Amino acid sequence: MSSSQQPFRLAVIGSGPAGVYAAETLLRSAPVKSGELEVSIDLFDRLPAPFGLIRYGVAPDHPRIKGIITALHRILGRGDIRFLGDVEFGTDLTAEDLRTHYDAVIFATGALKDAALDIPGIELEGSYGAADFVAWYDGNPDYPRTWELDAQSVAVIGNGNVALDVARVLAKSADELLRTEIPANVYEGLRDAATTDVHVFGRRGPAQTKFSPLEARELAHPRGLQVVMDPRDLEQITEAEWETIRADKRTDQIVQTFVKWTEEQARREAAGEEPTDREGNPVQRRLHLHFWHRPVEVLGEDGRVTGMRFERTRLDPEGRLEGTGEFVDYELGAVYRAVGYHGSELPGIPFEPSRGVIHNVAGRVTEADGTVIPGVYANGWIKRGPVGLIGATKSDAIETVASLLEDVSTGILAAAPERDDDAILRLLEDRGVQYTTWEGWMALDEHEKALGAAAVDADGEPRARIKVVDREEMVRVSRDGAPQPTNA
Which run of H or E residues covers position 256? Predict the structure, then answer.
């Protein structure tokens, strides 16, 4: 397709990293940069604001990850990708609509649901999926404003980044989180929480954790928090495993952090000293790290969580996990499973339920039998499953866009019959869809910053931002603007 022809029209469904990087990869491709291929890209999201999982799936006290928004903001702010928010695929916009208005579509809808943990009692009241809790504390407008936090002792099942995020938010004081963008309802909920003890359980040992050395060290940072280790978990590491640990710098740093905490804990106990946080403040909450624990059953009474049963595990001589036959029960008032995410099926798009992904080969969406559906592509977690970080998402985008460009060059894609850029806007307006735009996001962005500037954190400093939670309010500010609060 030469630049003298109509632009190639692409729709991207999902404005998180997978969607933005797919669009950006196409714009940076050789055919586009050389002028051989002119493109027009619309980026849709079911929420009024962009950035997907980075805005609504990362703990608010993770500024390094949140900093990815800066990069995504820079890309979308250039103006060569049109953002259309508050548009839900399958409801406001159908697969047939996309075929009518676009030459191709890339689905980058991510994985939003919790993976299942198939053990008895998981359905009891007080048993939650971590993804739902994350959506609550991140102010996702599609989730309830309140969260039950009346349990003193809670369990977090998992040893990945999400498990750590959930444990840290539960264990931190609400005042510390005022430095972040948490909404008022989240602050109030965490401030009034009864939680004093957070237990994090992993099936494997300290050397098999999936988080970074920095994330491990940060666990001990919150004021008034004591990290509690079970010395037995470190004693169980064999000499052969220690050799493997020492050979890997990242793993060694993580395990040595655990060793340091265990030794300090033992020293204090031997000296009869009262436990304190790392700055010497009295302990108000405890974060217990448990390794070599395989979940067996959530225990309950009268339909509510009262505890959890685990089997102690170990590594066999071949390094495989096995049970020891020793079972341990813990008294708990709530359980959060953070054992992974799972993708959601999209209307009319072939889906593989067991893996939670769209059927695809190298990003080309296929029928279940492998037949390629021309002009339909996937990227990110909905393409490959919920594994990997931003680097993997970029690699995904390169592969998916390469498949798309190959299909463009071979001429197998049917041209959309409706090629007017604004026709899709008229369609949405005719259906009463109150879509938001990039300009609307800029208005909402400034509004949230103004809300923060008008408030203060626990140290009396202005807050950087307060996230708006109500969907109608988000749409109103995005479409009409709003009076900005001042420090009156």
Answer: helix 249-271
